[in-house]
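Dear colleague,

As promised, here are the two records you asked about, laid out in our usual form so they can be pasted straight into your sheet.

NAME FIELD: protein one
SEQUENCE, THEN STRUCTURE:
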Amino acid sequence: MVNLLTGEYRNTLDEKGRILFPSKLRSELSENSLVITQGIDRCLWLYTPDEWNAFSAKVMESASPFNEKNRNVIRRIIAPAQEVEFDKAGRLSIPQTLRDFALLSKECVILGNIKYFELWDAESYNNYLKESEASFRDAAEELSTITF
């Protein structure tokens, strides 16, 4: 299992829909590609192929095509997934349908979440942080059993 790094990185999406992936993160990857799919909150989720296989298998094992909510998750997360290889310059070409979903413009944010990455439009991410502040505080309070 790859131990992906965490961190927040800001990069620009070029006119061809490519984004330079941070070399610090890229150097930790054992493969030359990532699986990109729609995430929740209008961002994209990026997985190594191995992590994607594990994640998608868990989703599919617990989902029934006869359940409307399950079908909705499958259609929005599993179905749009595409594997994309890094080019020689370390860029990922984000498919147009996924760029449209995440409303990606020029300025983007890449977040390392240990097992996967998120790719956000920078303005959308800043708005999300502002709008979710109260629910974040409530969620953090629920973690009060964690001690140091």
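NAME FIELD: protein two
SEQUENCE, THEN STRUCTURE:
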Amino acid sequence: MIDSRTSDDGLSIRRRRQCPQCGGRFTTVETASLNVIKRSGVIEPFSREKVMSGVRKACQGRPVTEADLAVLAQTVEETVRQTGASQLDTNEIGLAILGPLRELDEVAYLRFASVYQAFDSLEDFDSAIAQLRADHQDRPARAVD
């Protein structure tokens, strides 16, 4: 190996190599595979599109663009890859979506959280809304132009 560099997104490694016999040089790109264990036990590769699809449902009727969803999916992938695990269950991915989704749209966050945090009563919604309100009070006020 002559040279090794991490890609800008941190998801792959580019290596320059040289054949010891002929001296020819070539490049390899290495990526870590990330698999998802579904509730049924089936294992499949991680898919940003599936993240976007799940979040898209929570964002119906909200001012969220496809570009917003793509950025969110990339953020989630980077987050789950940073765990170093090669396999994650769908619930862990759902929980990794909550933070970025909350920043994107709080209504969509509540919709999504109600599924992934298994809200089963009005008190669960009240608690989540109270937490959002408390967080709003703790943030400094934005300057209005």
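A couple of things worth noting about protein two: The mean pLDDT is 88. Residues 34 and 85 are 8 Å apart (CA to CA).

Best,
R.
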